[in-house]
Amino acid sequence: MEYNKIKNADKIIEKSPYLIQNPTQYKNKWSDLFENKNPIHIELGTGRGDFIINMAKTYPKINFIGIELVDSQLVKAVDRLSNLNLPNLKLINMDARNIDQVFGKEIHTIYLTFSEPWPKKIDEKKRFTHISYLKLYDKIFKKHKHIILKTDNKGLFAYSLESLSQYWYTFERVSLDLHHNEIPIPNIMTDFEKRYYEEGRPIYYLEASFEE
Ligand SMILES: C[S@@+](CC[C@H](N)C(=O)[O-])C[C@H]1O[C@@H](n2cnc3c(N)ncnc32)[C@H](O)[C@@H]1O
Predict the structure, then answer these.
(1) What digits encode the pLDDT tens for the residues 43-92?
(2) Residue 1: inside a domain, yes or no?
(3) Considering the entire predicted model, what is its pTM?
(4) What is the predicted pLDDT for the residue at 182?
(5) What CATH number did the domain enclosing 84 receive?
(6) Neighbouring residues of 7: CB distance < 8 A, sequence distance ≥ 6
(7) Looking at CB atoms within 10 Å, which of 27, 50, 122, 190 has the fewest?
(8) In 156-211, at which residue ranges do the beta strands (DSSP E only) sit?
(9) Which residues approach ligand 1 with their CB closer than 6 A?
């Protein structure tokens, strides 16, 4: 997907106290940075940040880190945060492919929210639930692995169900229409989700875990 470029986006985001500029130096030390031992949850492809910011507001006893490749996307997140004091939130501008350089086995939950579906077979490896990513997550999860995925894309959802189950994850919750579920699932909407919800599109949801 192409995103609008914002001039000097890198300079704008680096001024934010929420942006961690040299994240590799905190590998295995993120709890020290947060100054507590609370669980750490990360979102891959955090975009404009609405989800991770509202999660941090709602769950102050969880530490959140939003990871986003495109600096122009993070400008909006940084702007939204300018008048907020959320000690349990950090942002990183990086490619999710390199998360094992930034985290040791210290992550409790990974959110994959409206990730690019990469529908062509040739791009399969770029899907965040491709086996190469699942192996990468093994390097950063604590003993208990926990993934929450939301998407409007049926193909990516079906692929993810298959790929996670082949990798021995079990499903704690699955919904083919998150917003019209018989048993409500606690949910904070992302920027893309709000848009799709207003268009009346179903949102697919899964929560998968694995205990070593
Ligand atoms: C469709 S948007 C969804 C944004 C947000 N999660 C939401 O639901 O509103 C996908 C986001 O993932 C980011 N992204 C794609 N590939 C990435 C990667 N390899 N590492 C980090 N971010 C990535 C894109 O730049 C984009 O901001």
Answers:
(1) 999 999 999 999 999 999 999 999 999 999 999 999 999 999 999 999 99
(2) no
(3) 0.98
(4) 83
(5) 3.40.50.150
(6) none
(7) 122
(8) 170-175, 204-211
(9) 1, 44-47, 67-70, 73, 95-97, 113-116, 190-193
